[in-house]
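Help wanted!
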Amino acid sequence: MLVLSRKINQSIMVGDNVRIVVVAVDRDQVKLGIEAPRDIPVHRSEIYEEIQRTNQSAAAAPAPKATAGAGKATLQPRKPSQKR
Amino acid sequence: MSAAMEAGPITVEFPRFGTFTYAEEEVFTFPWGLPGFPALRHWIALTLPTQPTFVWLQSLDDLKVAIPTCDPYFVFETYDPKLPAYAVTALEITDPSEFTLLCVMVASANAEEMTMNLMAPIVVNLRTRTARQVMLENSGYSIKEPMPRKTATGAVAGPEA
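Answered by r_m:
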């Protein structure tokens, strides 16, 4: 892992489009500002890891009995206007 | 995958669901993988006669992997997530009529309780057949929202029910 020292208001570039700024430091807490293109998701690691674990638990679901005859699912588009 | 080379139906043997035949154009592509399964990019959506409201996402890259999901509106009619720009842009969604949502369901160890991940819906573009799971941090939606028993057991529950 690359380790860099930064002061408040200094930043780090990740690639050409992502800038991470140290906004504030208060004892053991660091506030970071992240500037990234709109198509790049930015999340706290814990949330991402919880989603990973949830997907893996879901995949471990017991296989339902009598599964013969699995068919293709028909996915309906959302029509929000009909819901309100 | 080359459509020109793979013309015609493809038959596979899924460990959970047995023999299944599908066409190339029925495959859903997850260009960014799925959290927890980053390498699995190709999936097919299945329903079982015994669980008409469930959509099983079956991986074509690892046939052992299948994930139960459900259209969240069938269970939570007021579910109204604001999709992040990165999903709409990345999936090239141009109109609300061309996408749908699937939420991952998790059963407890004894399969008595089921929860649905409303915080991270899978957004599916039905036109391009590409999909991405998004994370709605600070949306107030839970990763483990308990499902009402009636729908959790797979009974038919349409939007009007």
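OP: Thanks! One thing I noticed: The helical segments of chain B are 72-75, 85-90, 149-152.
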